[in-house]
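Hypothesis: this fold can be encoded by more than one sequence.
Test: take the structure tokens below, design a sequence, compare later.
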């Protein structure tokens, strides 16, 4: 199976942890970018985690996102292994959009 470029996107309409991306079986993903955009005119915060089995690891804990701004969260690619899950949580509903750009390698 060839390499597959993808994006994953979510509109955070609630304040619960929301799945942004789940890495498929027999695949490794290189996440090149995670953009967080605030579109309500109110600053907010975002938490990003990666889940591996029953373990949850914090990537960004209460990361500030300014009003009407877009923030690139990554400075280097992030490796996500098979069955690992990237989740994002907004402090306030209906303010943040998150888009990840990635390469799946099978």
């Amino acid at each position: 199976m060839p390499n597959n470029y993808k994006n994953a996107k979510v509109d955070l309409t609630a304040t619960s942890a929301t799945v942004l991306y789940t890495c498929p079986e027999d695949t490794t993903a290189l996440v090149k970018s995670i953009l967080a955009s605030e579109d309500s005119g109110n600053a907010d915060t975002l938490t990003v985690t990666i889940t591996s089995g029953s373990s949850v690891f914090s990537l960004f804990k209460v990361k500030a996102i300014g009003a009407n701004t877009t923030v690139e969260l990554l400075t280097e690619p992030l490796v996500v292994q098979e069955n690992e899950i990237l989740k994002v949580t907004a402090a306030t509903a209906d303010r943040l959009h998150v888009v990840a750009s990635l390469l799946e390698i099978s």
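The chain has one domain: 4-105. The CA atoms of residues 35 and 80 lie 17 Å apart.
Hypothesis status: open.
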